[in-house]
Amino acid sequence: MRGVLRHLLPVFLVGWSSAAAPDDDVSTSTLKDEIVDCVETGGRDLDGDGKQDLACVTRRGDEDPQRAVVVLSSAPAGTPPALDVPILHCPNCGEAQPIQLEMMVDENPPQAFEVSESAGSSSIWTYEYRFERAGSRFRLGSESKSVLDRVNGMIGKVRTHYSDSVGSSVRTVSRADESEPRSVEFLNVYAMPRKGSIKLDGDGRDAAWQQATRLPVGRADYIVLERSILETNEDLSYSLRALWDDGFLYLLIEVTDDVVVLAPPGKNGVRYDHVELWLDRAGQPWDAELTPRMQPDLAKTIQLGLVPIRGTNKVRVLRWFPDETNLPKVTAAWRKTATGYTIEASFPLELIGASDSYADEFYVRELRKGLVNLTVVASDADDPAAPRQESMIATSRLEHRGAPYEMGLLHLMKSTTPDKVDGGGGNSASP
Question: Exposed e or buried b for every residue in 306-326, given b needs 16+ CB within 10 A?
Fold first, then answer.
């Protein structure tokens, strides 16, 4: 469940000079917008320079979403605001209930502020955003999406914390009385639009990969099998990069493995070093009543294996669930490295479900094209004489085989990750 920020349009606001007095008249003229809500100006110092600043939610017409805007009093006149991002609009609420806004600013230390909105009738949707100071600007530090079903009292919630373009999420379903919550943790995979060609040879050095966000996955994340203790990340870890275009998803998986045990030709490879993908194409990981989907869907849940073959640069691609078969439409290659091995692979979008990927109420934002339930798993074997699965680490805490609720999310991004959007002087620099 990810994401909410739109592509940002340039915004031209009258900047505060350091000598300007922050009163109501200045606030209105500075923003040049319809002001929906502002943090009280008295004593608010978001950048810690001893001068009060202005944080508001503004609106540009009935059709446009509201925007969080921060103007720093220390900024030279005419400079863009320290933050200017579109944040709202409950996509399914219609006119049932006015959007409610609340803004809070940390007092000690004064380095972040929060915005929330709620709307709905039979179901109440709530969106929360925390923006943290990053130098003279602000970035999205965390966001939360939740829905309360008033009929059955169920609450579904996803909260994501951002750090260096890594989105760590917790998905929770509970009753309104907060009894018996069911939670799962996962790392988000952000696939960027492909720019430039990719030669699928397992080398991973094409310039196109430098546009992709690197997701590191190690022993401190999600170990889903540990027959022998993973002492360090040198025993088993990996990084993941993803790109996409109109026809394919591309993955670059760089595995660190101190003992590489390769499958011989003809073996299905499950006992040898390999990478697995669990995919679910059935949409939201809970049903209409917010009940977690804990069983794989035989028609829409698949398990793929990428198995490097000994003595070649070929990767055998198999579907292991719901039944075993080869997948000739998936192209992959591998290469040995000084610290392990690398796999490059491309997948038709229709195979992984991206051609009809869901963009539910949490994610109807122009930053993303769509979502796919996905967990990537690296499987390690350490004994060439008697290979078996010794350790497995993943991008989610997948405790039940093929459970969509416990999978993470693949995001088909339109330009960049949520915490790196930049517009008119807004967030941190783009990656």
Answer: bbbbeeeeebbbbbbbeeeee
